[in-house]
Amino acid sequence: MQISQNMQSYIQDLKSLSEVTNFKNLNKGDKAFELIYQKAQDAKIDLSNAKEFLSSLSDRELSTIQKNKSLADPINVANVSQEGAYNLLVHGYEDIDYNGDGVTEIGITKSFGILPQEASHEFREKFINTLKEMEKNGASEFDIGVSTIITLGSFSLMKTAKQQYDEDPAMQALMKEHGVDKFIVKTPTFDDNYIAQLKDKLEHPKGGAYISPEAMKSMQFFFKTYDKVSQNYDKNLAKANQEVQQKAETTKVALEKTIPKHESRYETLLKMNFDNMNEVERAEFSHLSANRPLEFLSDEANKALAKSLEGKSDEEKGQIKSIISLEFTTSIKMNDKGNIIHGARDFSKKNHDEVVSKLNKFIDNFYKGGGVDTIGTIDVLKDFLTLYTDDKQTQKVQNATLKDLLQKQSA
Question: What top-level branch of life does the organism fall under (predicted)?
Fold first, then answer.
């Protein structure tokens, strides 16, 4: 099933969480369940057909799923929603709220999941890495369990309360009358500030709040580890962003040197007029039109880039070499009016200017925001250059042949 990038990230976080002993059930699955899982994947199940697929399974297969999902009662397909059916057919770390109603359905069971989907990927990573670090340093399952329940449990409680509040007009009126409705409509935002506030509440309880010494010891272990993990995470993230920015700047410089040179060569080509060629040149150009005659157009720019490798770091050299590896090739064809065309697309001066304008605008906007990886840059540039590079079946032409032709035309 096609799912959003955010959901994919959440699933990966749950899979990472399954490496912690307390949550190993998220990734359990015997051979019998794996056969059902693969069968479902081969059938390309999604939220529109999961229930239909589930109803096609045998009682034995349903029993296998029941055991894998640790369900108390046998599965009654008639009572299961599409999301509930889908989550029965995937691994535990893939059990999430797919339809966006705020509840995760697994069969007829409804819950809010272990990790809140509303939390950022950054927080989820910090939290999971904290639990892993705690376990690495001797934390017991009790320590991990208490840390999870206290840190994430408040979200589930407040979410449940808010859901009940939204569905009960009488409760809304009563709580507004007593001025406590403001507490119910807020849910926590999971970030470093939330952890700091939670720590303060536990260390300085108010209104008769109480936490046992054993639980407090576990939470102190958690807070100490979280601070360390968070600091390292932020430090590494800042370093990674800096490296990405440096790569982006290096790529930008290389592109700024490359594009004008290619633009100049394309201008030379576009100025050629088929009607002005003599018969020999016209025949030669017609022959070339079925091939890829523009390879040489990147030669000079590539040589300039290669020269710029001198004195650069290995990282910068890698970025420049990425630019050099681009293939600025094309096939040229002529229409019956003697105008250069590319495939079915009219390859006029207007087309060329439009592409170059979009490309330059893209580069300007692309780098203003920063946080760009070079591979992504290259991929996008290749998309922009499809006007010049979409004929992959033709053979490549010797550069010298077309160079001679262009020299004749520009003389």
Answer: Bacteria
